[in-house]
Design goal:
Elements lengths: L6 H12 L7 H4 L7 E5 L2 E4 L4 E4 L2 H4 L8 H13 L11 H13 L6 E5 L2 H18 L7 E5 L8 H5 L4 H4 L10 E3 L9 H15 L4 E6 L3 E2 L5 E2 L2 H14 L2 E5 L32 E4 L11 E5 L1 H5 L20 H17 L1 H16 L8 E7 L2 E6 L6 H10 L3 E2 L6 E4 L7 H18 L3
Parallel strand pairs: 3-15, 5-6, 5-7, 7-10, 10-11
Antiparallel strand pairs: 1-2, 2-3, 4-12, 8-9, 11-12, 13-14, 14-16
Helix pairs in contact: 4-12, 5-12, 9-10, 13-15, 14-15
Length: 446
């Protein structure tokens, strides 16, 4: 007589029967069942049988201050008692207005207009449409092409996927996609890559002069590419090229914004040493999502400049930006985001993150000396390294091994990375190191 399934097994089996999990080959999920999570506390997730796992990847990079944060939860509860939702077409409400004002202030007014959406891919879709429509309203409808970076990722809806260059997401849907122009990635793992990337971008802008609406990129870290990093100097040069060829620049900060790279906006790191009008140093669009609501409710935003906003200003309805979804600017999500921004303002989160990043650097640095490791790298609260050689199902096996060491961590291919909640002290950083080292020892024998 077989034993009754445990609560963990029971929930996992029910999930496999009823839930189609994202980014998952369900045939493999039957072999490696999903974690049956019951609750979250700070940086920890606890399964239905009480085992705990440190959320080293912040649940797909959304969880800034840990699970079940009392301040964010209270803001949502307070808003729930007042106004859970109202349509933003023809109506407005305090949480949306306050959030837009706060975000504008964080860009010194350079990107003073906020358009609300639900998720990162939707924000990218909006930025692409907005760029094209802005040029069209200015009599330049031929500017309808886009340039993106090799290995870049911007989402998996049809428009966002067209400017994404991650084969596993893109290849099956290639026949459905518009054709964007791919230019070289400024991958810091390869010497001279930034100069080559800028030359490729200049060449493409020159060849397609008058046809390109916008360049889109992830500032400082190409995340889904395997935490591929580049310098602020590269971004300054891209801004200059976009100005020279009169195209928009879209900075996709969905993953790298909200303090992940050492400043609230990753783009802020391009400002060092620059003078003159600060408006000219910002991109034309910034997309935000993930961490903006602290891992609680779906929300994304597109910030745009006054020039873009004015290009839609007209009595003609067709010249307006007629994009929407039913939950646009949801008050609960906006209340959560306002609580997140209040935390940044009141708790000196960026300054604290610099200390936490140092804890990570000191604890994880020995991995750089491991002969199985190459390209150890860090930008703010993001640390990554690549594993040498080819290893069958490395990401899956490492993930499974890490579970046994109380870590929830999902490598990207053979890139191991941590992007933890902002709750790191020296002891926690050392715990992460020990768990990663032990998992590596079990999966890759030296």
């Amino acid at each position: 007589m077989s034993a009754a399934p445990t609560p963990f097994q029971n929930l996992a089996v029910r999930s496999l029967a009823a839930v189609w999990h994202p980014c998952t080959q369900m045939a493999r999920a039957a072999v490696v069942p999903p974690l049956a999570i019951a609750r979250g506390e700070g940086p920890w997730l606890l399964d239905v049988e009480g085992r705990r796992y440190f959320d080293a990847n912040s649940s797909w990079w959304v969880n800034l201050f840990g699970h079940s944060d009392p301040g964010i939860h209270q803001a949502i509860k307070d808003q729930l008692d007042r106004l859970p939702h109202v349509m933003l077409a023809g109506c407005t409400h305090e949480p949306a207005v306050t959030l837009a004002e706060k975000l504008s202030a964080l860009t010194q007014g350079a990107l003073g207009h906020t358009f609300f959406a639900s998720d990162g891919a939707s924000a990218v879709e909006i930025a692409l449409k907005m760029s094209f429509h802005s040029w069209k309203n200015q009599g330049l409808a031929q500017k309808k092409e886009f340039i993106c970076l090799r290995n870049g990722y911007h989402g998996e809806t049809i428009g966002a996927l067209a400017v994404t260059d991650v084969a596993i997401f893109r290849d099956a849907y290639e026949p459905l996609l518009m054709q964007a122009h791919l230019v070289a990635s400024p991958d810091s793992r390869h010497e001279g890559s930034e100069a080559l990337a800028l030359a490729d971008l200049r060449r493409t802008l020159s060849q397609r002069q008058g046809q390109v609406a916008a360049v889109i990129l992830e500032p400082l870290v190409q995340c889904a590419a395997g935490m591929v990093m580049h310098s602020p100097a590269y971004l300054r040069s891209v801004r200059a090229l976009c100005d020279e060829f009169e195209v928009h620049l879209i900075a996709d900060e969905i993953a790298v914004g909200c303090g992940r790279t050492g400043t609230f906006f990753a783009w802020e790191q391009t400002h060092e040493g620059l003078s003159g009008d600060p408006v000219k140093h910002w991109p034309d669009f910034i997309t935000l999502s993930k961490g903006i609501s602290g891992g609680t409710l779906p929300l994304s935003l597109v910030l745009s400049t006054e020039a873009v906003f004015q290009s839609f200003w007209s009595d003609e309805v067709a010249r307006g930006f007629l994009h929407s979804h039913s939950y646009t600017g949801n008050p609960l999500a906006c209340a959560a985001a306002n609580a997140v921004l209040d935390r940044f303002a009141q708790a000196q989160v960026v300054a604290q993150n610099q200390i936490q990043a140092q804890h990570l650097r000191q604890a994880l640095a020995p991995l750089a000396q491991d002969p199985r490791v190459q390209h150890w790298r860090q930008r703010g609260m993001v640390v990554a390294f690549d594993v040498v050689g080819k290893h069958d199902r490395f990401a899956e096996r490492f993930h499974q091994a890490a579970r046994q060491h109380e870590l929830l961590i999902r490598p990207i291919g053979q890139t191991v990375y941590v992007m933890p909640p902002y709750l790191i002290d020296a002891a926690t950083a050392q715990f992460l190191f020990e768990g990663i080292r032990r998992s590596l020892n079990e999966v890759v024998h030296g």
